[in-house]
Amino acid sequence: MPEYKLVYFNAKGRAELTRWILAYGGTAYTDERVELENWPERKKTIMTGKVPMLEIDGKQLPQSLAIARYVAKKAGLVPEDALRAAYCDALVDTVSDLITEGHKAKTSGKSEEDGKKAVREEFIPNHAEPVMERLNKHLGEKEWYTSGKITWADLSIASYFGEETNGFSSKLLDKYPALKAHIQKVRNLPKIKEWLAKRPVTSMLLTNRPDSAAVNQSTNSTAVNQSTDSTAVNQSTDSTAVNQSTDSTAVNQSTDSTAVNQVIHTTMNLIKQLQNRSCRSSLPPSRARQQCGDESAGSQACIRPWCGTTPPQFTADPRFVHNTRSRLLSRPSLATTTTTTIMPEYKLIYFNARGRAELSRWIMAYGNITYTDERVEKEDWPEKKKSLHGGKVPLLMVDDKPLPQSMAIARYLAKQAGLVPQDDMDSAYCDAVTDTLNDVTGEGYKIMFSSMSEEEKKKTYREEFFPNVMEPVLVRLNKRLEEREWFVTDKVTWADFMISLVFGEVRKRKADLLEPFPKVVALVQRVRDLPAIKQWLETSPDTPF
Question: How many domains does the chain divide into?
């Protein structure tokens, strides 16, 4: 059993979910709470200079959600099924976004009273309650958030919405009875109840701390609000999107009849996928437009080879289905040996930009995953938004079921593409790297979409963003890559993709900034030279960002 030490401030904040998970799992650990006056010295000993940080036998793991996900796996709180795990990720990411927005509101005014007013009048109705409403509807139909047993998503819900200091009074929760009952059910679990009774009495967030770079109490490079677009800020999960009662990727059939039906269904499903499969990976936009005879084809990824004609249709002859079913049923071993894998149909919805969706596109290109790349133009967004669960993008449709949150989407697809290590620790390091770089890009987008003039933006990038946000990360990345081909393991992972994606954008705009970091530059190119990625870069639409 590893020795764990969780390092954070003497507050709930970004570490409390991990504490709940450790309590639930009965995991022994040292709960190191750093007092404000001791932070400057303690900070020097932490690799990223940020907290929370989990020491595992002396090795440091940063990033609050990477930490929580790692200990949740050890506690049996992460579903084995990749899609259900992704829905948990999406919910936890949504709660994390709410923590960020809530803190922003709380510290937005000149006084404490101004902050409370902003939480009450802006944050709660505009950010928190839409999520609470969806959760209430979903939890009214389910015992647990996803799958048939408790997950870390349930602990995330209870640990955040159950804290009155976050602005969630009992009166407010009365409006959402199913959510309130769920919170109480989790808090009444014996080990959670024991933790709540013995934990130190602290505030949710520390304010007026001497370290302004850690205001949001996260390992993030600067802890930003992870949004791609001012109209798509919280990428919140949708309660109707997470009501997954079946395993969409691997159904183990328990009866003869069910097994046979599944084999037949799978065959027909594969034929349908062949009918609808994308040819973007093999055609440049110009050729696609020529073949389709449609100017819009260059920005739409689902380009059928019979464009302009009526697609051939497959209809199963009932006699064929009946005869096939009878023959299969005559084989007694089928029901006990058959595990059928159904390839889902994917549609990725985002703006006509790289932004928060490009990592997922790279992953699907690498994994040769067929999907529809739906790119929403700016003028079409108001109408399209009405049709989307949660009204946010990116959104991945998995057999018509929506999966929100950019990092939850990318992690799910990375598992399908073999880009997530099997080892829990290596997987957690991938999460930490991708989360950190997601924060870096978020800070960059924050400047990009600000109301500053172009000159002010350039100055902010040059004098604040690069030296304070990006450069410290580059230093750490370059040092680790001095003796490694890939960042986390001896094989490429989605963390390498994220590094190449983020710093490839920097190289495109300001290559001289990367000159002091040759190992990072080499990795950027190494990923982009992978055949599938190289082909994607050559054929994908050229967009501003």
Answer: 3
